[in-house]
Amino acid sequence: MMAQEKILKDDEIVLNLGGLGERRRRPATGARAQPGGGVDLVCLSHLRWDFVYQRPQHLLSRCARGRRVFFVEEPVYGDAMRLDVSEREGGVRVVVPHLPHQARADGEALQRTLLDQLFAAQAVGDHVLWYYTPMPVAWTRHLDPLAVVYDCMDELSAFRGAPPELRGREEELFRRADLVFTGGRSLYEVKREQHPSVHAFPSSIDREHFARAREIDGDPADQAAIPHPRLGFFGVVDERLDIGLLDAVAAARPEWQMVIVGPVVKIDPEALPRRPNIHYLGPKQYKELPAYIAGWDVATLLFALNDSTRFISPTKTPEYLAAGKPVVSTPIRDVVRPYGEMGLVSIAATPEEFVAASEAALAGAGAEARVRAADEFLSQTSWDETWARMWGLIEGVISSRRARVRPEQGLAMAAAQA
Asked: Phi and psi dihedrals of 206, rounded to 5?
C-alpha cells in the first residue's frame, strides 16, 4: 500500500494503517476506549522490529497473543510527516513515525503529536508503557498508563554514539517505572541499586527452533562451498565484535573457516579483517539461523571486552547450546556465569586460549555429556515462561493501581453528591 501523507487537522487524522483501520474521528478529550475490554501495550524502542529477531520480538510477540501491542520505533526522516502502522506475524503492530528533515530540532515534540494521534486513531485506552530506551520519556510524560516497564537489555550509555542526555533520562525513567527488568545478571546487580523493583530475566530460549539444527542435513547456498572445519558466529557485527581476535584465530589456523552471519552496523566494513578463511555472509532471517548453525563445527562468541560488552547477556549462548554445538566464548561475565562455571561453554581470554579451546571442541571430547547437561539446563526456561512471569508482575502493578483508584473515585462521587 502506498503511504498516505499525514494531514494535520484538529478534528481528524489520516494514518497509513496498513489495513489495520481507516480514517476515524478523534475521540473526545479524556475518552478511554477499550477495544475488547483489554489493556494495550505500547512499546517505545530504539531497535527496528525487522532488524534482528531477538529479545523484544520474542517477548512482545507472546504479549500480542493476549492483547494489542504497538511497537513504536525511532523516527525516519524524509520529506513528509506521517505515521505508518503495519502488522507483523504474531499480531504486533509496528509503528514508524516519519518526520521531515527540516523538523529535526522539533523531533520530540512532533513524536508526541504523532503518538497522540496514534492513540486517537487506534482508540488506545488503558495501556502499559514498555520502554527499551529511556529517550522517549521526554515525549511520553503526559500519558497515563496503568503500568510503566523498563526492559533494560543493555547499558546503552556505553554504546558508541549514545546521546549525551541518555543517562539523565534513564534516571527519570527509573523514577517513573513501576518495574525494571534486566537482560542479564550483571545488569541486575547494577540496576537493583537504582530502583526498588528490579527483576533479572536473562536471555531465554526457543528450544524447538534451534534444536532443529541437529536434524538438518545440508547447507544454505552461500555456506555450502565453505570447507570444514567451520567456526561460526551469528549476530550484529558492531563495536562489540573482537575483530582483532577474529583475525588472530584466522591467521593462526588458516585451515579453519571463520563464518560470520549478521549485519554490519556502526563500524566501517572496510575495517573488518579480510582473509581467505574469513567469510562474511551478511544478515539472515531468524528462521534461517538453524540451517546455518547446523553446518558449523564450533559456535563462537567473539566478543571484545569493552564498555559496550560489560553487561551483555548474549541470547545466542543458549541458542548455540540448543543447536547441540560446542561453544567457545571470550570471558563475558554473563557467559562465564552460569555457562562457563557449569562447563557448558569453554571460556578463552586470549587468541592462544581461543585456538586451544576450539581445538578441544573440534576433537569432540565429552561432547555427549556436555549436550545432555546443556539440554537439562535449558529445559528449565523458555520465552513462554519468561513472558508469563513478566506479565504476572505487570498484572500485580495494574491490580494495585486499580485498587487505589476505586476508593478515590468513590470519594469523588460522594463529594459531588453532597
From this structure: -95, 85
Cβ-Cβ contacts under 8 Å for 4 (sequence gap 6 or more): 14, 15, 16, 82
- Whether 211 and 351 share a structural domain: yes
Residue range(s) defining the domain that contains residue 333: 207-378
20, 169: one domain: yes
Please check whether residue 328 lies inside any domain of the structure.
yes
Q: Please classify residue 231 by burial: count the beta carbons closer than 10 Å to its beta carbon, then call 0-12 exposed, 13-18 middle and 19+ buried.
A: buried
DSSP letters, 148-159, are EEEEE-S-GGGS
Mind listing the pLDDT tens digit for each residue in 342-381?
A: 999 999 999 999 999 999 999 998 999 999 999 999 999 9
What secondary structure letter does DSSP report for 32?
A: -
Asked if residue 211 and residue 198 are part of one domain, the reply reads no
Model pLDDT for residues 201-243, shown as the tens digit of each residue: 998 999 999 999 999 999 999 999 999 999 999 999 999 999 9
34 pLDDT exceeds 60? no
Over residues 106-119, the pLDDT tens digits come to: 889 999 999 999 99
